[in-house]
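Sanity check

After download, print the first record. It should look like this:
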Amino acid sequence: MTIFRTMIGASAALAFAGTAGADELKLAHFSSIKYHLHVEMFVPLSERMDAATGGDTTIRIYPGGELGAGPAKQYDRAIDGVADIVYALPGYTASQFKKTLLVELPGITQAGVNKTEAVWNNIEHLDEEFRRTKLLGLWTAAEASLLMADKKIEKLSDLAGLKIRVPSKNTGRLVEAWGATAVSMPITQVYQSMDTGVVDGTLVDTSVLTSFKLGEVTEYVTTGMNATNSMFMLIMNNDSWDDLGEETQAILTDLTGADMSEGGRVTMTSASDRALDAWLAEGGELHTLSPEAAAEFNAASDSLAATVIAELEAEGIDAPGFVAALRN
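Expected structure tokens:
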């Protein structure tokens, strides 16, 4: 698959400049211009769109919440047309993406499976959940770890009574199966919440040690259990999509979709590895659970996937069909 790669320096200005007289699409995200996806996905997408259309259609990037603060409202900004394209997490609007978010649960796919690829191989199962927007990208991050402010987690009982920030309902249910209290909040609030003791830690991929500076408030990272993979999406306002001509729609389709999503997965995974290495070099402590301790975590959450699948099926959602397709 084609992987998006960074093109920095003067070329990055193309993402903001636009072309006189061109149709301009607004792409909104809530992170800085140093964020790995800004550099390795959003800017290259803007550059490629400009080149492919000869400057007739451009993408102008609005980083750092310029079109509205707070990552939890990104989906609404796409629906309402505040932005033409937005970067968001399905988990922040979990009621809209119940089937999509099954992918976050341990045991939904076979061990070692590329979840992003599995989702795109069966993307038609998610048509109903994405009907209110045009889906451009959907991908997973690296496997989540427990990032703890000052409490080292070596066994399941160490989590008892602790407050763990989560990005989605399903991740919250996983944390609660482990015996902790789940606290839902967007990533932009986690630094202060960990620093002030509002939460004891967070379950998330380690890229945030750098991208949201959580390394400054994290003393311990614990890994080794079956955890979760957060989902990320790039979506477009339906009217904005319809306003594009067929030729431009074909160009944007070619530049996004499964290939771009795989690039997003690779970018997120690489960023997690780099951030963890940098944090360890600065004195952070990584603890990998013993096989016995990991088995205890996994046993506590072993029935969660089946429970959620049954609940969604009772609501009339074909969760069993989606999961069976992912496992084939």
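If your output differs, re-run the checksum step. Summary of this record's structure: DSSP finds 13 helices and eleven strands in the chain.
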